[in-house]
């Protein structure tokens, strides 16, 4: 198995994101001999430069990716550039499908062609879907049912499937890790869940109280690094052991919220969606639990991989 | 009259004292307040304070065979009666308030139940979980006791003519016990069928609407029929059986468990207290 000590360079796709910035900083600090090349279509001028980190603003096109792989020699690729629903608007649905599906395929194809030694792809626990008949602790073999009710999650599920099919097909030539983390929250993360938890006066269902797993951005970045170093090819759920109910999480954050029955929220979401982008699938995630099993990951990185429990994580979110 | 009604639905002073002891024992047994399945011990304790007067004063519940219960995890298997799952609520209450040491049973519920607003989270806070094999195995491995009604929904959709006639048991619960070596605790519940004494299920119409049952009842509020809970001796899983044993071998054991519960029910019917609605059920 390839280790971080054996490599010279890493490519980070989606380097402008909060988690990518944190991961890059941690790798740069711990492995100063590794050169990190970050690419992102967003403005990269504001990103903190270090001696061994180079950022490049780059439009995600086939030609640009081909040039990037041709002109550089990478040992590992971190694909953290999945375009989430919160970051896009309805007009960019095609863009999301293009990047998440075509983009991922292209990145994987180029990784194989240019003899990359290890690829890590960031998927999400959303692929399992939040359904009322979900068992508690969904393992990696559980069916991906997210798009049954909400077709807009198709790109998330299909991206995961493209990555996992490719992973098994090429397992003898390239090490691949697909991570499905629970809700990542932290001051630098701007995903739907972080926004939902920190926005005052958002509706909270009074008739459902799903359980949640939250992982702090710092813990998640450390998990990524451990995966690059210790984890063999495979799919891994990433979540802490501790869980928290939505009502308790909201109370813990001490932010005023509006209690409302879920059927009202579902109708309101449809109306809101007409005016501006709102991921209405998210309603299901605040209605039913989607708790994932972390035992497969623990076999490789040990029991204690999270420094922050859910309450500490929420506390840190509050400080932001 | 109002005073009597108030007493029926509130805890007496001696019961309040008893509750303090129970709550202390629960805090010791469940140090983490909330679990991944949604059990919230603090909220469960509050609900219990409201349910207990109904359990004790309205349904006048009695428990027999407490001495058969040891301090270890069990698969509690009972007959299902009474149109809505009040029997499950009463049985769960008995294991916290009348059985020592107190424990929160984890009742396995049907899939449709987990989608019900208000009811599903309330039941989950009290310990209920989706009746799924993954959940069952993980809870048993964590040392929790499970409550199952292997008759399923068919058990509570009986017309008056079928009262106390048990429907065939499913095998799933036994396979879970075989996988984990958990002992089965058979329980017979008597008195719950008379909550709704005159009831008829037009099965063809219910099937037409895709419903598990369509109770046409003389009353839709449960009558105060006295309930007796009979706990039998634990049933050990015979050696050589496991989760993947053939149906034939499993069926033999399931039949034995069914027989044990049938005997407990029959014994209960002989001992039951007088209630006018007893006349509509079996004569024993």
Describe this entry's structure for a reader.
The complex is a heterodimer of chains A (320) and B (284). With 320 residues, chain A is an alpha/beta fold. Chain A has one domain (4-190, 213-242, 291-310): NAD(P)-binding Rossmann-like Domain (Rossmann fold), CATH 3.40.50.720. In chain A, 39% of the residues lie in helices and 17% in strands. In chain A, the strands form four sheets. Chain A has a seven-stranded parallel sheet with strand order 3-2-1-4-5-6-11, sandwiched between helices. Chain A has a two-stranded parallel sheet with strand order 7-10. Chain A is globular, with a radius of gyration of 19 Å. Chain B has 284 residues and is α/β, with parallel strands linked by helices. Chain B has a seven-stranded mixed sheet, sandwiched between helices. In chain B, strand 3 (106-109), helix 5 (119-125) and strand 4 form a beta-alpha-beta unit. In chain B, helix 3 (41-58) crosses helix 4 (86-97). Chain B is globular, with a radius of gyration of 18 Å. Chain B starts with a helix and ends in a 13-residue tail after the last helix. The interface between A and B is medium-sized, with 21 and 22 residues.
